Amino acid sequence: MNRNTTNEEVIAATRQWLEKAVIGLNLCPFAKSVHVKKLIRYVVSTALTPDDLRRDLLKELELLAKTPRDKIDTILLIHPQVLTDFLDYNDFLAVVNITLEEADLVGILQVASMHPNYQFAGTKTDEITNFTNRSPYPTLHLIREDSIDEAVAVFPEAEMIFEKNMETMRKLGHEGWNALGLADVQKH
User: Distance between CA atoms of 71 and 133, rounded to whole angstroms?
Assistant: First the structure.
């Protein structure tokens, strides 16, 4: 994130990515309803260190746990100034799991990971399948377990989402991805 980028611009880029990629390509069939109902909380962390981010994460986890689902169903904790290196970010996911345990929220909430340089194990950096989890900024997606359970119950073959997403991205290719107009969004 460059120093002139505002929190509103960070959120706008994230929302555009969510609408065009995640919802537009149906990468997450559960995202559309919470987006339409305005039940996604977008938070831009000003954290400059992993410890600061952990404090923000704990605050947002606690907020999500105590807030009714009809007010906030999920949170995107965007942290543009810390863990911009994917390997550092990936290592931090262990801290995320410890934080969930210490807050006694395992089984209640979970955290999904998105990053501008996301890379699945065993893939090359530029493989199109990595783009399923590539967001404009490093982002932690805080999700309610019961929301996932309900969505999976009504979605046929939910266990096939990952494979379907890989196939969608292979068919789309880099040219199709670029045609979505997210190239600038991804360069943050």
Answer: 26
